[in-house]
Amino acid sequence: MGRKKMKKSSQKIKIYTLVDNTAGYGYQGEWGLSFYIEAYGHKILFDTGMTSLSSENARLAKIDLSSIDTLVLSHGHNDHTGGLVDFLKYIGDVPVIAHPDIWTKKYVRENRNSFEYIGIPVCQEELESKGARFHLTTKTFEICQSIRTTGEVELNNPYEKIDSDLLVKTTGEYTPDPMMDDVSLIIQTERGLVVVAGCAHRGIINTLQHAQKMTGDLRILNVIGGFHLYQASQERLDWTIQTLKAMDVKKVSPCHCTGFNAMVQIYQNMPEHYQPIYAGSVLEIETKLGTE
């Protein structure tokens, strides 16, 4: 018998924004981020926002929360993990993919002698008692052949540095947080990579270059999420925009910690590539899925 030929059936990757600083009609926003992703038969929750708002917006979008098969945490800040407990009411037993440093005691320096805790608001044992099954790794985690996390992202340029006001507390001392737990999601398609970032604390360009190196695919079809440019210098903004253009990124959807000024400048410089997102928005990306 001859070998069966693979047919390509059209399929859409769908990325629902559940939480962002801005929101569409009927939805609510907050400082935080959460995406619900349907891709290649998988239903993935990427971050959970700061409160139960992510679950509420998901219900408004008529998303069956119990159908989620994987939860990915981009890092351990509370604006990405605060909705965990509420989601677990609906999801129940679910694998949670993250870096082990999500459990470090994370703080932000408000002034010289004032520090605010911004880490995960609930302990690991409580979350596990509610059904979370943590898979903590510094390496990439493969959800399926075409979907994986970045693992640790290297710092490879002089522009993208970790904010000096982000700290961890160990043995009573505050020290700079290297944000090694900052990971993104990579979805491979026949037209290039879709990269979903939480905050890109280790740099959105570093993250994209890391994804290219991991997959061997230099084509960036979409980059979506927080670019963490709200405190960036004009020099860094200019460099970031020019590098995105030089990388021939097809679509950009910055939100959350990117900051309004940075989003405006990205749009002004890349208007034909800019796709706005906000709580309640849905991105649909055409792709092909091989079938017998």
Structure overview:
Helices cover 21% and strands 33% of the residues. With 292 residues, the chain is α/β, with parallel strands linked by helices. The protein has one domain: Metallo-beta-lactamase, Chain A. Strand 15, helix 6 and strand 16 form a beta-alpha-beta unit. The protein is globular. The N terminus is likely disordered.
Attribute tags:
7 helices, single chain, 292 residues, seven-stranded mixed β-sheet, 33% strand, six-stranded mixed β-sheet, Metallo-beta-lactamase, Chain A, alpha/beta
Outline of the structure:
This protein has seven helices and 17 strands. The protein has helices spanning 53-60, 78-81, 84-91, 124-129, 204-215, 234-246, 260-269; strands at residues 7-19, 34-39, 42-46, 70-72, 94-98, 106-111, 114-117, 132-136, 142-144, 147-149, 166-170, 173-176, 185-189, 192-197, 220-226, 251-255, 282-291.
Report helical residue fraction. Answer: 10-25%
Q: Which class best fits the helix and strand makeup?
A: alpha/beta
Distance between the termini: 15 Å
| Topology-level CATH name | Metallo-beta-lactamase, Chain A
Low-pLDDT parts are 1-7
Radius of gyration: 19 Å
In round numbers, the mean pLDDT is 94
- Give the strand order, joined by hyphens, for the main sheet: 8-5-4-3-2-1-17
Assess the beta-strand content as a share of residues. 25-35%
Number of extended strands: 17
Shape: globular
CATH superfamily: Ribonuclease Z/Hydroxyacylglutathione hydrolase-like
Under the CATH scheme, which class? Alpha Beta
Number of helices: 7
Q: Can you tell me the number of structural domains?
A: 1
Q: Major sheet: size, sense and barrel closure? A: 7 strands, mixed
- What is the correct CATH architecture? 4-Layer Sandwich
Order of helices and strands: EEEHEHHEEEHEEEEEEEHEHEHE
